[in-house]
Amino acid sequence: MANQSSSSSSSSSSYPILCASFNQDASCFVIGTRDGFKVFDTNTGRLCYERAIGAFIIVEMLFSSSLLAIVGAGEQPSLSPRRLCLFNTKTGTALRELNFLTSILAVRMNKKRLVVVLQDKTYVYDLNTVKILDSIDTVPNLKGLCAFSPSLDSCFLALPASTVKGSVLLYNVMELQSHCEIDAHRAPLAAIVLSSNGMYIATASEQGTIIRVHLVSDATKSYSFRRGTYPSNIFSLSFGPSMQLPDILVATSSSGSLHVFSMGFAINQRKSSSILGSIIPDSVADALDPTHHQVLQCAVTAGVKSNSVIRKVDKVVADTSTSEIVSCKATISIITYNGYFQEYSLSINQQNDPVWTLEHEFSLLTVISDNAISL
Question: What is the pTM of this model?
Answer without folding.
Answer: 0.88
